[in-house]
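Key result, reporting period 2: structure in, sequence out.
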């Protein structure tokens, strides 16, 4: 198992609370996620008061999409998640409408 985590911040460096982080497997399906105790958790993840998100996944290749305020703010494909893989994201004020 591997840990995928990170912080979502705005351009001023403030945490983005309540951003949705979708994690997709190599087939494009939503990946199965677990918490640190091995219990299944929902996908998408929701950032906390510090803009932080975290999930445990099988080691492998994933893509993520971050949405906030009804817009896609960030997309990244082909991320290899090994032991611990932090993906920190800075989101701008604009994005593609959902």
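The corresponding designed sequence is given below.
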């Amino acid at each position: 198992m591997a840990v995928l985590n990170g912080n979502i911040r705005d351009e001023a460096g403030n945490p983005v609370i309540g951003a949705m982080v979708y994690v997709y497997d190599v087939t494009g399906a939503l990946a199965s996620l677990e918490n640190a105790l091995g219990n299944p958790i929902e996908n998408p993840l929701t950032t906390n008061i510090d803009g932080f998100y975290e999930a445990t996944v099988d080691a492998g290749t994933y893509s993520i999409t971050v949405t906030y305020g009804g817009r896609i703010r960030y997309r990244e494909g082909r991320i290899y998640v090994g032991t611990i893989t932090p993906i920190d994201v800075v989101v701008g004020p604009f994005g593609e409408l959902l």
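The chain has a mean pLDDT of 90. The radius of gyration is 13 Å. This case is discussed further under Risks and Mitigation.
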